[in-house]
């Protein structure tokens, strides 16, 4: 994951919670139903849980509230500072989707709105690592923005530009939002069964289960 994104996370840390709560109209549709989406992931996750890109620990809090053990990985120092205060019950480490401490076995690997910061090559490598880590029946539960097709991508990007949402327009053009079929292939070739559930115009719940013969 590029260093440029870590710098972005450090700068975004203080205003991240306002953004996901809908205060910023430019990103309101991206995070529509945010709290309910996080609650769904928390309910599906099986303890112990490894969370990548914990940000300000909004999802982590819900995991802990359900009585589940949570371990968080976050590359941004400023995000980690906030997360540690907000959710002291969780063990939080520096790292990212591909580089992280050698920790105890986990039953679920989760993330919210962060996996798209990896290139497709990095995504595939990361998923291969999760497949090696999880036992059969273990799950990956990722909330993230992705595109169902090239046509949908073009339409959504053009809509952002027409609305004058130039920060969102820039993000959609420059960050590594995947296509659904590409992401499906990555999980399937790494021995996962995967389903996609659309949660709003931008966000999807990706639920992948390690196959029993893996």
Q: Overview of this structure, please?
A:
With 214 residues, the protein is an alpha/beta fold. The protein has helices at residues 3-12, 16-20, 34-44, 58-65, 77-86, 120-133, 150-162, 166-174, 180-189, and strands at 49-52, 70-74, 91-94, 108-112, 139-145, 192-198, 203-210. Helix 3 (34-44) crosses helix 4, helix 6 packs parallel to helix 9 and helix 7 runs antiparallel to helix 8 (166-174). It has a seven-stranded mixed sheet with strand order 3-2-1-4-5-7-6, with helices on both faces. The protein contains nine helices and seven strands; from the N terminus they run H-H-H-E-H-E-H-E-E-H-E-H-H-H-E-E.
Give the key terms.
7-stranded mixed beta sheet; 214 residues; alpha/beta; 42% helix
Write the layout of secondary structure elements.
Blueprint: H1 3-12, H2 16-20, H3 34-44, E1 49-52, H4 58-65, E2 70-74, H5 77-86, E3 91-94, E4 108-112, H6 120-133, E5 139-145, H7 150-162, H8 166-174, H9 180-189, E6 192-198, E7 203-210
Parallel strand pairs: 1-2, 1-4, 2-3, 4-5
Antiparallel strand pairs: 5-7, 6-7
């Amino acid at each position: 994951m590029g260093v440029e994104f870590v710098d972005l996370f450090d700068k975004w840390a203080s205003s991240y919670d306002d953004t996901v709560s809908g205060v910023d109209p430019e990103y309101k549709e991206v995070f529509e139903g945010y709290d309910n989406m996080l609650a769904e992931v928390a309910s599906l996750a099986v303890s112990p849980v490894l969370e990548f890109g914990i940000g300000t620990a909004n999802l982590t809090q819900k995991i802990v509230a359900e009585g589940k053990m949570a371990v968080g990985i976050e590359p941004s120092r400023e995000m980690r500072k906030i997360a540690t205060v907000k959710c002291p019950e969780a063990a939080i480490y520096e790292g990212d989707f591909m580089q992280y401490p050698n920790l105890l076995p986990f039953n679920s690997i989760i993330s919210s709105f962060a996996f798209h910061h990896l290139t497709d090559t990095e995504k595939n490598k990361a998923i291969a690592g999760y497949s090696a880590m999880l036992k059969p029946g273990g799950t990956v539960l990722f909330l993230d923005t992705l595109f169902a097709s090239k046509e949908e991508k073009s339409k959504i990007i053009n809509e952002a530009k027409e609305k004058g949402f130039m920060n969102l327009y820039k993000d959609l053009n420059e960050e590594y939002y995947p296509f659904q079929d590409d992401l499906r292939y990555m999980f399937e070739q790494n021995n996962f069964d995967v389903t996609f559930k659309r949660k709003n115009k931008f966000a999807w719940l990706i639920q992948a289960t390690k196959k029993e013969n893996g």
